[in-house]
Amino acid sequence: MPRARVVRVDPIRPSEEVLEEAAGVLRSGGLVAFPTETVYGLGADAFNSEAVLKVFRVKRRPLDNPLIVHVSSLDMLHQVAVDVPDWVVRALSNAWPGPLTVVLKRRADLPAVVSGGLGTVAVRCPAHPVALKLIEALGRPVAAPSANLAGRPSPTRAEHVVEDLGDEIDLIIDAGETFFGVESTVVDLVSPRPQILRPGPVGPEELEKVFGFQFYLTPLTRGFSTYIETPPSPGMKYRHYAPSKKLVLVEKGSCGFSSYLDFLIDLLRSYSAESPALLATRETIDEIGMKLGADIAYIALGSRENLFEVAKNLYSSLRSLDKLDKISIAFSESIEEKGLGLAIMNRLRKASSERLVCK
Ligand code: TXA
Ligand code: MG
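# threonylcarbamoyladenylate complex -> structure
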């Protein structure tokens, strides 16, 4: 039996009583896992440095990897950030609540541990009634990374939080599966070169509409692991979202689609003695499954035509890989880097231990 109390609530009209209880846990320095529209977060009172340090400890998260602070209104932003330009306030009044995190200058009275010692702070206002009402009930900003053990796939269901942290935390608010399934878009608004630090549900075109200018997208943002000691966002240097099985991401480079499918078939055939798994879109599984047969564990990510579905299923698919005892290696199809595909490919690159490109 896990230690944490798991309480089920309605995602749209959550029980006031449960929210009051959860706010009480936060007020007394405890940790509460709660749903957002992206993934489940592990919350602590952002102004209680002891509680914030407990978040790092139970997640086994490196102390230099800063947390996101969650607010329930645009006004509350000013409790954690300073020198916020008017154009940022204007843009956020359109984009919030929503899956967009902005990096701004940190207010000196917000404990530095929240930001892993940096002079900046990442802030977002989540579009989920449970998250918003919890922050409102506490009346203060809530620091919350994703509620998984460091390096594991982010939780999209309360069961995932129980798996990773059930023995370590006080309360888990279960409101069912999260809507997007991948974490918020993170953008840097303090450095002279506005950059996407982590691609997410708010894509580059949408960002341009919100802010009126283009953001830079670097290879690091796309999930390539060019090692640098001090990347623009500390999270970029850690391997993430990784299943414990060996995962090979098979990228479709410049080769044609049918050559790409043949390439996947050859790979899977050559590993057939190890009963490999294939993570792929339904269409690909339908197409190559007929040629390959039953020695392979197929994990469908969703339809190629519906990247929302693929994003939503991604992390639970990675977690389900670990539960397939027989397999020791998995291959993953790649997704076109358009719209949500940018976020999906970033996560797949960070989850895989090897990458192969079909040219
Ligand atoms: O959707 C989300 O953003 C979820 C939900 C719970 O809100 N949260 C989440 O938090 O994904 P976390 O801690 O797993 O990821 C935060 C990312 C990390 O890559 C971290 O390095 C980056 O944001 N970050 C946080 N503060 C930063 C800062 N001051 N400067 C640059 N990057 C920062
Ligand atoms: Mg995380």
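# post-check
The longest strand covers residues 100-106.
The chain has a mean pLDDT of 94.
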